[in-house]
Amino acid sequence: MLGVFSGEVVEVPEELVVAGSRTPSPKTRAAELMNRFLGSSAPAVSIQLGYLGHLAYSHTNQSPFAPRMFAAKDEIYCLFEGVLTNLGSLRQQYGLSKSANEVVLVMEAYKALRDRAPYPPSFMLAHLSGNFAFVLFDKSTSSILVASDPDGRVPLFWGITADGCLAFADDLDLLKGSCGKSLAPFPKGGRVCGCRGNTIKREGSDGANDHCCRNYKSHGVAGYVNYVVMPPFPVCLCDGLVSLSRKAFRVVSLCSATVLLLRFCTMIKS
Length: 270
Description:
The chain is of the alpha+beta class. It has helices spanning 14-22, 30-40, 87-93, 102-114, 172-179, 246-269, and strands spanning 2-5, 44-48, 53-58, 68-73, 76-84, 130-138, 143-148, 157-160, 166-169, 183-185, 190-195, 213-217, 224-229.
């Protein structure tokens, strides 16, 4: 699978820029990268996202243990590779039918949380269990969500093309030809959240993991892109980005339930 996004959607990470500048090597533009993928992976499906990006996938050389899937709905596009071991329980949690597969589940979970404040869409990553990697693009907000499982069992790489686009692919050799040395394995258990028109700040509870998260100003837009490498998946709550352990999440959930109960009692008394 292959996803390529322009600087209007997400800014490239500084680490990849520095890696490419140390040892300059030939690169190609994003359009040529996409054409090489379509030519080498035929039959393939490609989705042009205007000037914002391009998605493509193929079942060629697909592993039976990590099938590739694609789905699109309500201007949300998602490429998914792998398997969720808790798919059955997640279907029930999000009210989906038994026919819903992994890529549909990720899209519906993302959409449900996108439209339900105060939880950010990436909140649903804490619920996913299995071996997977996915690339999701939300055209309505011009934002992306890219993630891999904590063990990194499904290969995923990212790099920078000659025209400054950020590319994600499961094929290392494919990206080498277009990204040169500006290329690296995607971090295990990592995620990239690109949000346009919003500000995302990290507010760690103890500051111990501040080095895991950095904010980058997006080119030409009032927004930030957030890179997080903190396996297992952090849980995001409240204003900005708050990383909590699963134990802390249970405490927060208990506190939330207590607040709701108190409000309910107040309504009854009134």
